[in-house]
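Section 5.1 Outputs to date
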Amino acid sequence: SSFPCPYQTTFSAYHSKYTYDISNAKLISIHLKGLKKMLIKRKVQIGAFILAAVLMSNLAYVSNALNQQKKDVLQLQENASHLDTTDGDVSLFDKNATDAKYNVVQVQQFLSDISATRGQNGLDDGFKIAAENANHLRENLVAMRKAAQTFPDQQTVISDIDKTAALFEIYFEAGNQMAKAFVAGGPEAGNQMMSGFDASSENLQTSLENLLKYADAQKFKFDKDGDALLESIIDGNKNITLVSTATGSAIILLALIFSAYIIYRVVKPLHVFSERLDGMASGNLDIHSPEENKK
């Protein structure tokens, strides 16, 4: 028993190396598990950043699109308010201009009637009815002036209204003088004044037509702008739906790709390698790498 075994030294060295390898394998296994967690965490962070970037881009686009739509809706409402038949300035201006033109026709009609009948046989109310229509026309011109206060070129329009009012007074005075001449002196006296009445009538009609054309142009402008705004709102809704759908699909696709990448390129290889190191730590040193198995 005092003589040492010839293989004792070799066995002790092998046993020490074996114990050292197992300890190292355990340490490596522990470190690799930590590394695996770190790699997965980093990949998850990168993937989350990409998905968040896509989502934030979509939110920014949708937010800007909605803000633009809000502006378009407000502008559309403002345009519609100008054309409102109850209190819209353009609609009221157009209505009063149309009524004013009718008043002019009525004044001319009743002054012509009394000129023809000379107020005989009870047909003597022409001056009265013509004066009533003249007052209505003045009221319509005042209403037009009020409506024009909100127009961008109000000074020009108000100037045209004042010009029309002045031309009407000339027209009305010429018509009354002509009718009175017909009543007092018959056709010989009245015909001498017809040319002046016709000239004043033509000037007045031209001025009124210009105001009516202006009203039509304003209505057309607001209608056209409203149609463009409405089309912009509809297109905006379509674009928001399209972009949101595309973004949602992209997020789902990226999530699937990222998940597959993590599973097949990170989790699965590290899991296999960790299992082999666990086997080494348990004493199984007969483990080969996948490359060695292929040989």
